[in-house]
User: Which sequence fits this backbone?
């Protein structure tokens, strides 16, 4: 299972997962992308919310499609999952449901202060998922 967000570390995570499964019969790849909700104090109206949701889902599908295309030929079966919510929590919840052999995530390299203030998806996954995790820089 590979968490993807369209970033360079995410692309490297997909590449690594592709190398690890190459030549393995029966391998399947699960790609997950999480779309965050709108935040802020200003209510912008339902039309704007719907447009934001549609656009973020379109972008999420595009990110998943691009990640699937990065996998080496012959491509294994790929399950693409688009979830809405906190990325760390959603990734762990899906991992608990799917029980992958390995969960692969990219690391964006936030500084200590940024990671402390914003949190880190890779740190959250390592802390809350009880299976093996590969963090790719």
Assistant:
């Amino acid at each position: 299972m590979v968490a993807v967000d369209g970033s360079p570390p995410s692309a490297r995570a997909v590449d690594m997962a592709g190398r690890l499964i190459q030549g393995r019969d029966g391998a399947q790849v699960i790609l997950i992308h999480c779309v965050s909700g709108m935040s802020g104090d200003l209510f912008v109206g339902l039309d704007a919310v719907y447009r934001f949701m549609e656009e973020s889902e379109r972008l999420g599908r595009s990110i998943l499609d691009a990640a699937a295309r990065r996998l080496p030929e012959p491509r294994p079966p790929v399950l693409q999952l688009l979830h809405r919510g906190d990325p760390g929590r959603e990734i762990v919840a899906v991992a608990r449901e799917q029980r992958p052999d390995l969960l692969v995530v990219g690391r964006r390299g936030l500084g200590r202060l940024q990671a402390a203030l914003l949190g880190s998806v890779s740190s959250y996954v390592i802390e809350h998922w009880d299976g093996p995790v590969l963090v790719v820089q």
In short: Strands lie at 2-3, 29-35, 78-84, 103-106, 133-136.
